[in-house]
Amino acid sequence: AAGSDSDPLGRTSPRWRLLGFQNSDPRTDLRTGRLALECLVYFAERYPDAALRMVREAQADGVDYPFAVASINVTHHLARFLGLACDGESCAAPRRV
Question: How many other CB atoms are found less than 10 A from the CB of residue 56?
């Protein structure tokens, strides 16, 4: 059926917001680069049931977090913590764990 949830998403679509992006164009949320997108795609492809469950939980009443944006932010913070990403003018050295 045209426009069904199983159809591929285009570059812009209102359905991107259902996945937890802030706008109909997901590129606006990917300010931190490609790593966050690759991690999100990997998670969705490798663990589709868990990813779908998390997206649905994020859409539930009383829950206030956009799944995709939250995932992007977590990836960005981990990359900074591990010294894989720069923030502004400085790059932190990898931290010893």
Answer: 12
The whole-model pTM stands at: 0.66
DSSP 59-73: HSTT----HHHHHHH
Nearest to 66 by CA among 37, 34, 23, 11: 23
Half-sphere exposure of 33 (CA within 13 A, CB side): 10
Task: List, for residues 31-82, the tens digit of each pLDDT value.
Answer: 777 888 899 889 999 999 999 999 888 888 777 778 888 898 899 889 889 8
Largest separation between any pair of C-alpha atoms in the chain: 52
Using CA atoms, how far apart are residues 55 and 26, in angstroms rounded to an integer?
Answer: 15
49 three-class SS = helix
Task: Measure the CA–CA gap between 37 and 59, rounded to whole angstroms.
Answer: 20
CB 30 within 8 A of CB 76: no
